[in-house]
Design goal:
By secondary structure, this protein is α+β, with helices and mostly antiparallel strands. α1 packs across α2. The longest helix has 16 residues. The strands form 2 sheets. It has a 5-stranded mixed β-sheet with strand order 3-4-5-7-6. It has a two-stranded antiparallel sheet with strand order 1-2. It is built from 6 helices and 7 strands, in the order ββββαβαβααβαα.
Length: 149
């Protein structure tokens, strides 16, 4: 996200296991621009991009951030054990820079201080949500805010 030429927010997607899993990661918002809904807009855009490019992939996120967990939940992500996430060693090697990496290693990658969250498009097809009308309204509202067609 940019404000003029200034970077004020960021996130990215990365695919794993030949596109079977996609991580939505790195959500950062400049402190000056927090509490304006920017994080939700960025998260919605990464979700939309991931679903567009990898429509059958399981989307996942690992975080210690309660606001990110809430955003993920609103989009349909569910908390899961790490065993339900990618097995790709390269993904897990990316955790080496985290201060909690020793916890992850000590527990044989079964648990950490992070919460794993997963969006499985197949689960959505099998069990329609009672919140579906609200989610459709929220999706359309986000599209309008982002000036998407």
């Amino acid at each position: 996200a940019l404000c003029d030429d200034r970077l004020i927010g960021f996130s990215y997607i990365e695919s794993w296991e030949h596109g079977d899993y996609v991580a939505t990661s790195g959500l950062i918002v400049d402190p000056e621009f927090r509490r304006l809904g920017l994080a939700a807009r960025i998260k919605a855009k990464t979700f939309e991009l991931a679903r567009l490019r990898f429509p059958f992939a399981k989307l996942f996120s690992i975080t210690t951030s309660l606001p990110v967990m809430k955003l993920n939940s609103q989009m349909g992500y569910k908390p899961v054990t790490f065993s339900e996430l990618t097995d790709d060693e390269e993904f897990w090697a990316g955790c080496k820079g985290c201060v909690n990496y020793d916890i992850l290693q000590r527990n044989n990658r079964r648990m950490c201080l992070c919460t794993g969250m997963l969006y499985d498009p197949k689960a959505k097809l099998e069990r329609p949500s009672k919140r579906a009308p609200y989610m459709m309204w929220a999706h359309n509202r986000i599209k309008k805010l982002l000036h998407l067609k």
